[in-house]
Design goal:
There is one protein chain. By secondary structure, the chain is α/β, with parallel strands linked by helices. The protein has two domains: 1-33, no CATH class; 39-283, Rossmann fold, CATH 3.40.50. The chain has eleven helices and seven strands. A seven-stranded mixed beta sheet has the order 3-2-1-4-5-7-6. Helix 6 links the parallel strand 1 and strand 2. The radius of gyration is 19 Å and the shape is globular.
Length: 284
């Protein structure tokens, strides 16, 4: 079913009261609002430009794992479970390499994921190959791509239903990996992350958001999804110094190609139509 048809079907079911499959927000002046593609994030662009040293350090971390990443790209096996690979567009090339390399570098004691998938596979592989103790918990109501992974704690529900408890033992240097609905509405998972989980999180926590195109807008072909998470993340960054920018995949591939062109990243294939969109922050 084409995206437009999916959106129409979901919209009709929602506004007719058959089943809530999204949000309908009446607004008298909606026609005057800029399209998502016209959004401007000049302050975020400035912040990213000033984080060049951090970007270079992460590329160095990835290059330090070049041998392991080449093995994964060649089809290396994660014993006892589903193996990570780069032949997918959900968590592609630079996103996957960054998650793997940062886990190997920081060796977190605890990782909590909101949304399971290929990120889980790469993080689990980094833990296994790095030989460090780490408790990896993933919260997902339908964790299909990770059910066979060994040593993973799966909370098979939404983050709203899971509540605050899974995040209570996060410490400085641990990871919070967020790949949720990408929709900020009262009571949504993004609302809980931004207004409950992050304020209570410790300083020094590394935080990952996926599908972040900052300092650019979401791509036009994604308009039907109505994502708005990155607008809130932009405000989080532009409004103060509570978070340090560690790395942003989209910025690196669109503005800093010379930084990684001669590294292992350039050797790894990127599926047609895939977007590299990881954003890593550190809470100050």
């Amino acid at each position: 079913m084409p995206p437009g048809a999916k959106r129409l079907a979901a919209g009709l079911a929602t506004v007719l009261g058959i089943k809530p499959l999204g949000f309908f927000i009446p607004c008298r002046y909606a026609g005057q609002a800029a399209s998502s593609g016209a959004a401007s994030f000049a302050r975020v662009a400035e912040i990213f430009a000033n984080a060049g040293e951090n970007f270079g350090a992460v590329i160095g971390d990835i290059e330090a794992c070049a041998s392991e990443l080449r093995t994964i790209a060649a089809g290396g096996q994660l014993a006892g479970g589903a193996k990570p690979h780069f032949r997918q567009g959900l968590f592609p090339r630079l996103d996957a390499a960054t998650a793997y390399a940062l886990a190997r570098r920081y060796q977190p004691r605890r990782i909590v994921e909101i949304g399971a998938g290929y990120s889980t596979r790469f993080l689990a592989t980094a833990i296994a190959e790095g030989g460090f103790d780490c408790r990896l918990t993933t919260i997902d109501p339908s964790p299909r791509k990770v059910v066979n992974l060994p040593g993973i704690e799966i909370i098979e529900t939404t983050v709203q239903e899971a509540g605050q408890t899974p995040f209570d033992d996060l410490s400085p240097g641990d990871f919070l990996v967020v790949d949720s609905s990408h929709i900020l509405m009262p009571g949504s998972d993004v609302d809980m992350v931004l207004n409950a989980i992050l304020p209570a999180a410790p300083r020094g926590l590394l935080v990952h958001f996926h599908d972040i195109f900052l300092p650019d807008a979401y791509p036009r072909e994604w308009d039907w999804r109505a994502y708005n998470e990155q607008n809130a993340v932009a405000a989080l960054l532009a409004g103060g110094d509570a978070f340090e920018v560690v790395f942003a995949s989209h910025y690196a591939v669109t503005r800093l190609r010379d930084l990684w062109a001669g590294t292992v990243i350039a050797e790894i294939g990127l599926p047609d139509g895939a977007f590299e969109t990881s954003l890593w922050l550190r809470k100050r």
